[in-house]
Sequence to fold (274 residues):
Amino acid sequence: MTGVFKSIGRVFTGGSSPAPAPQQVGTQRVQSVADIPDYVKPFYTRLLEKSEPLFDTPRELFSGSYTVPFSEPTQTGLDQAMALAQAGDPLNQASSDLTQQTLQGNFLSNTNPYFQQAMQSAFDPVEARVNSVFSRGGRLGSDANQAVLANELAKISAPLAMANYQQERQMQQDAQKLAPIIRGQQFEDAQKLINLGSVLEDQQARQLQEEIMRDQFRYTEPRERLENQLAFVTGATRGGTSTTSSPIYGSSQSNFLNPTGALSILQGFGGLFG
Fold:
């Protein structure tokens, strides 16, 4: 008798086998309905009615220009600056010419017109003194007179020529240092033209941007009106139905329906009545 109940117990408990893992045996579906409150619906209806004329009425751009033009003083200043830059700086050209002449040695003694005048003013007293001496002795114009005169003049001219040469050499060296600076200044006019051109190009870019905006407005304006209208409509119909699903887990098969378990029950009853 005890064996029978043990067999029945094994049938409903699965015997010595472990319990199977839970499996999905069904699905639970929950449907939710959301809607705007009834007291709000009249206001939404009124808004939808008022949105119709807005949707049907195209918008217009400002009739004037969106770009501020140059004022008269600004335009005058730009014109004057442009003219000056195009004409070039005469001081730069004069500096370049003077530096070029200095580097070429145009102011050395043999090409300096003022040097010869300075030399002659120094020679005159010497010539008068030497000739006076030889004249009193009746030898004016003699070879000895000319030799003494040449010697005396050489004593004067040599130091003057050396001083002029040294001075001009220093000036040439200074001119070499100034030459790159003067060359850089010659680009100032071109750079000013570039800067002025940038101001004009910036103004032209703003004008072009306005033209592009006006051209694109005829395409974007209807789309924006449609998007605004859709926003009104979807906002007024924000109610709706949503469904959520969740699985149901459980044992997929009862131990009573297990053939092994059923056979154990029969065997247990056989032992009871055998």
